[in-house]
Amino acid sequence: MRRLAREFPPGARPPASEGGAGQRPPSFLLLAMEELNPSHYPATRAARVVENYVNYREGSPHRFFLKEKVTQASKEKSIVNCTAEVLYHLQDPSLAPEVNVTLDRDLEKHTEDADNKFYNKMKNLEIPIEAHTIPDNFGNVQPEMEPIRILAFVACGYVIWQNSTEDTLYSMARIETVKQVKREDEFIEFNYTVLLHDFVSQEMIPWQLQVLWHPQHGTEVKQNKRLPKRCACQKTCE
What we know:
Helices cover 23% and strands 37% of the residues. The protein is built from four helices and eleven strands, in the order E-E-H-E-E-E-E-H-E-H-E-E-E-E-H. The protein has helices spanning 41-58, 112-123, 146-163, 232-237, and strands spanning 2-7, 30-35, 65-69, 72-75, 78-89, 98-103, 130-134, 170-181, 188-198, 203-214, 218-226. Helix 1 (41-58) crosses helix 3 (146-163). The chain is globular.
């Protein structure tokens, strides 16, 4: 795996801030590439970015991709070889990493029927779903809530991709709250508050997401916001 990092010489500014729009002095741009050991932390963190990027673009309430090896992604029992480049913006870590993914074959779709059934069920509910603490304190998830949980993983793929740096390793720990919002258009909507776990700092970070989904149009995170961290005593008192 290769790590790419966009850097500029000391005292130089990035091309975007030089002159007018579209001007990009090539002498100011260096693209550094470094071969990484797949078992080392930098490769693991870059692979997590790729995993979440793919999930946001390709996932659904019944379709979620897991990294089997640093150079592979798996879906159900089917393994797809994945080659990816991750470009971190070292001068501005607030910018999302650029991810370029190449798969050795098209991703198979075995979940269309299940996704359509879930969509129709959610659209026709008289009382919108509202729940909290998924999984519960014993690790249990009610079967009817599993698609909603997987959709949260897919939506968190966007948040993790957009907020990752070389020094982070995020994963969704659980759903704190979820509330379905009735809509007049074709999408279904869920408002989530989730906990993201950063394995590097060991922080548990509350994050709020407004998520739209449609079986033909995929997932869209309309809004997301990092929330203030709560101490354990504050959570106990609620």
